[in-house]
Structures are given as structure tokens and as C-alpha cells.
From TrEMBL:
Protein name listed in UniProt: DNA-3-methyladenine glycosylase 2 family protein
Gene3D superfamilies in alphabetical order: DNA-3-methyladenine glycosylase AlkA, N-terminal domain, Hypothetical protein, domain 2
SUPFAM superfamilies associated with the record: DNA-glycosylase (SSF48150)
InterPro entries to which the protein is assigned, alphabetical: AlkA_N_sf, DNA_glycosylase
Gene Ontology annotations of biological process type: DNA repair
Length: 304
């Protein structure tokens, strides 16, 4: 068991991270929120390491305690630290977004309610790729349930305080399953074939390049994979890789969110992209995640 403090870019509110996690339906059941903290298992090689995350005693950030069945090497601890930091978006620089949003009167109430919110996302590329392959022509609920089944069958686990915590398996582990197993996970042959295509395709790309390479080049590479269309590529970029350069603003959920914030008619996707530029993904995340938040839990009022 080791403990360390991970710093976060300001402004940061861990309480809002927990609130966002509690409402993040695609990952329901993958973590346990306990009071002011959260416990989650992460994959380390073929093992599960459990992270206890709580507010930092001083400064913006979190206190992280790791639990493992053996002594972890410094490089192994560092790998889990990076995974936790990415999961909670600790290093995300929101300054450009906040500068634009701070001059956007319709966003004022939302910004007050969500001050310090960082994006929480899928804990690994494998988890996100599997979910977005399963959700195509399905529902969020079924895709999340099927994803949990993949983890339960294929993921390593560690039991703490009588509770089993399961780490999501690697892309390679999922891809190694035979067709019959993938059908059982996916529910039918068509979805199973798509799951294999997406998992094998994403596994063939360099993850570090996906996270840091030129946005349009990465997007083009994802769109070139079998089973990956514009929605899946955008979802992987924003909700898994944490890249805010783009968002599928033409989809109904973003149109509805814009209408709730700005009134009817809302700004067009082109107008929003023109205003927010390469931080449009943070706008999309804020209006989808926090537009119903108030400090007292009530709804942010719709613009007149």
C-alpha cells in the first residue's frame, strides 16, 4: 500500500469529479464512491491494482493510495498514477475554454455551478473502445451491462474489505477471444463482428500517438478502421482520449444541450466551433454534464 498526492491543473474540484462519476452511466459499476472518495481497479500487466482516491490535503489535486498483492516497482506505481490522472482529467488545461466561456453570458450560471470540473472519462482505451463498439445500434444501458460482463469474465481482480474490484482487460485480451465468446458478450453476431473490428483496429494504433498526435491525423486514422464511424471516432477522441478539439455538435443530445443553455434557436454548430475553437470539446462536456447542476442540486435555468 502506497500513498502519493497527484496535482491537478487549476481550477479543480474533486467533489465535482465525484458528482460527474456518479452520473457517468457508461461506467456505472466500475468504481465505488464512498463518501468523499472513490475506489477503482486498474490494469497493471495481467494484475489488478486498486486505487483509493480522495481530496488532497493541500492544493488542487487528489491523494492516491494504491493496493496490490505485491510490492510495486516505482515504474509500476508511476504507470498507475498516470492512469488515474488521465481517468480524472487532472492535467487538463481548461484555461482557453474558461476564457471564452467567461465572456459567454449564457454560460455564466453553468460555470458557477461547475467551477473546478474536470472531465472524467473511461479509465482505459480498451474500456472505451469496447463500450463504443457495443453501443452502436444498441442502448447505453445494454452496452454498459455488456461491458461489465466483459470485465467480469476477462479482467483480473483484487478483493479489499470483502469487495471484489475488477480491472478492465486489455485490448489484446478481448481480441484473443474466439467468435463464440464475443457473440456471448455482444449479444449477436453482427455486434460481435463490430466489436472484434474495433478492438483489433484500435489495438493496431499507437496509444501515445492517439493521445498526442495531430488531431485531424488521429481522427483520420480512427475513421479508417473497420467498424469506426464519425460518432465512434469523436467519442473515442473526447470521452476516452480526452481530446477537446472536436465534438459531434450536430447530434440531438448536443443540440438539446445548446437549446437548454442558450434558448431557442440555439447557436449553430459552426457558430459554437467558431467561438470555442479547439476547446469545443470542453464546452460539449460542460453543457452535457453540468447543465442540470446548481450548488444546491437544483436545475440550471434555461436561457430565455
Amino acid at each position: 500500500m502506497t500513498e502519493v498526492t497527484l496535482a491537478a491543473a487549476e481550477p479543480f474540484s474533486f467533489a465535482l469529479s465525484l458528482r460527474a462519476l456518479a452520473g457517468f452511466a457508461p461506467c456505472a459499476g466500475g468504481h465505488v464512491i464512498t463518501g468523499s472518495g472513490v475506489r477503482k481497479a486498474f490494469l497493471l500487466g495481467a494484475e489488478a491494482v486498486v486505487a483509493d482516491v480522495s481530496p488532497a490535503a493541500e492544493g488542487p489535486g487528489v491523494t492516491l493510495t494504491l493496493h496490490a498483492e505485491r510490492h510495486l516497482l516505482p515504474s509500476e506505481r508511476a504507470a498507475v498514477h498516470r492512469a488515474v490522472a488521465h481517468w480524472l482529467g487532472l492535467d487538463d488545461d481548461l484555461s482557453a475554454f474558461l476564457d471564452v466561456a467567461g465572456h459567454d453570458p449564457a454560460m455564466a450560471t453553468l460555470l458557477r455551478a461547475a467551477h473546478g470540473l474536470h472531465q472524467v472519462r473511461f479509465s482505459s482505451l480498451a474500456e472505451g473502445a469496447v463500450y463504443f463498439a457495443l453501443v452502436q445500434r444498441s442502448t447505453q444501458w445494454y452496452a454498459a451491462a455488456r461491458k461489465r460482463r466483459v470485465a467480469a469474465v476477462l479482467g483480473p481482480s483484487l478483493t479489499l474489505d470483502g469487495v471484489e474490484h475488477i480491472a478492465f482487460p486489455s485490448l489484446a485480451t478481448v481480441a484473443a477471444q474466439d467468435d463464440a465468446d464475443l457473440v456471448r458478450f455482444a449479444g449477436n453476431r453482427l455486434r460481435a463482428r463490430r466489436l472484434r473490428e474495433v478492438v483489433e483496429g484500435v489495438a493496431g494504433l499507437d496509444e501515445q500517438w492517439l493521445r498526442t498526435g495531430p488531431y485531424e491525423e488521429v481522427r483520420k486514422a480512427l475513421l479508417g478502421l473497420p467498424g469506426v464511424g464519425p460518432f465512434t471516432a469523436s467519442a473515442l477522441l473526447l470521452r476516452v482520449l480526452g481530446r477537446p478539439d472536436g465534438a459531434p455538435l450536430g447530434m440531438a443530445q448536443f443540440e438539446d444541450a445548446a437549446r437548454a443553455v442558450y434558448g431557442d434557436p440555439p447557436p449553430s454548430p459552426a457558430e459554437l466551433r467558431g467561438a470555442y475553437g479547439s476547446s469545443i470539446g470542453w464546452w460539449a462536456y460542460y453543457v452535457r454534464t453540468a447543465r442540470n447542476w446548481q450548488p444546491d442540486g437544483s436545475r440550471v435555468p434555461v436561457a430565455a
